[in-house]
Design goal:
Elements: H1 7-13, H2 21-40, H3 49-59, H4 66-96, H5 99-114, H6 127-131, H7 134-146, E1 154-157, E2 163-165, E3 168-170, E4 175-178, H8 180-183, H9 187-190, H10 207-215, H11 230-247, E5 248-252, E6 259-260, E7 268-269, E8 273-277
Helix pairs in contact: 2-4, 3-4, 4-7, 4-11
The protein binds protoporphyrin IX containing FE.
């Protein structure tokens, strides 16, 4: 393999992310992963993103040069880390501060585990189990609706020929965009209580209404430039959340400390909590301290 850019070269020539210490650390870590993958992995047998980028580098060297390989990988790391962390923080905060939801979710986890054979009890919650937990999925969707990780307008260019939008003609090349926070507060779609966190809205028997909400769920953007990591993110969240609540009993130090800090992403602070392990001798954890 030819000369692979150093972190400094990469930042100078390829990537305008500034020189903040945290950005540099992410870039340095990612470059290390690329090197490690190139040196130690047989990319033909591994089907992760990085191995595929390396395969593309080998197959199309005139298109995917070293800088582009670094771009692809760093974009994925940056696009996939804070976003998923923000989503998880919101889900955990909302579930922990809504006792009725918490008890209903714990009952759902318990019922999933009760379907297992004794020798499977201490295995982690699987993707299939989590995907089929309708209440868990409603909590995830509602959290992504209520607090999308990306709060900037997602820009798009009006294509050739222009477009008629809300009785207004927009010529080709006009930059238009939508913001998930705004769309997700639309009462005409999400209901009069769009301002509150209520997972039950996703379990409405009116399937047409739910389909309409689904279609306008914009946390992962949409169209050809929609989030390419959406399925991975859903996999992570779906497996992590029930396993987390099954394993730990969580006490927030002070729920009133929780704050949003929207910039272009919308991180939160104040989710300080005490965690204690549940007694897992029964394999389903002890759900003795149900909340009122
Ligand atoms: C809950 C977690 C996540 C959320 C909420 C999220 C959200 C988004 C959003 C809103 C966009 C812009 C889409 C648009 O303009 O229509 C985006 C783009 C992107 N996301 Fe995610 N994302 C998440 C996780 C991930 C993960 C885990 C990865 C990678 C493994 C990833 C990789 C990307 C990439 C590469 C883009 C740029 C796509 C392009 O411009 O073509 N994301 N994401």
């Amino acid at each position: 393999m030819g000369h692979f850019p150093t972190v400094d070269e990469y930042i100078r020539f390829k990537w305008q992310i500034g020189t903040s210490k945290s950005s540099l650390e992410v870039v340095a870590w990612t470059m290390k992963q690329i090197r490690h993958h190139m040196d130690h992995h047989d990319s033909n047998n591994v089907r992760d993103f990085l191995s595929r980028f390396i395969q593309a580098r080998e197959k199309y060297p005139e298109v995917v040069d070293e800088g582009r390989l670094a771009d692809y990988t760093i974009t994925n790391v940056i696009a996939g880390s804070d976003t998923t962390a923000i989503a998880l923080r919101e889900i955990i905060y909302q579930i922990s501060t809504h006792p009725v939801t918490y008890n209903r979710l714990m009952a759902e986890i318990k019922s999933v585990l009760q379907k297992r054979t004794p020798d499977q009890l201490d295995k982690h919650i699987t993707w299939t189990e989590g995907r089929d937990m309708v209440y868990l999925q409603a909590c995830i969707k509602e959290s992504l609706r209520y607090h999308p990780a990306i709060c900037q307008i997602l820009p798009r260019l009006v294509p050739e020929g222009g477009v008629e939008l809300c009785d207004q003609f927009l010529p080709a090349g006009t930059v238009v965009g939508c913001n998930a926070f705004t769309i997700h507060r639309d009462r005409g779609v999400f209901g009069e209580d769009a301002e509150i966190w209520r997972p039950e809205r996703w379990l409405d028997p009116d399937v047409e209404r739910v389909r309409r909400m689904d279609n306008l769920h914009f946390a992962f953007g949409g169209g050809t430039r929609g989030c390419i990591g959406r399925n991975i993110a859903m996999l992570e969240v779906t497996k992590f959340v029930p396993e987390f609540f099954r394993t730990f009993d969580l006490h927030l130090v002070d729920p009133r400390q929780y704050r949003d800090h929207p910039v272009w992403i919308a991180p939160q602070s104040g989710l300080d909590a005490k965690l204690s392990m549940r007694d897992s001798t029964s394999g389903v954890g002890q759900f003795s301290r149900d909340r009122e």
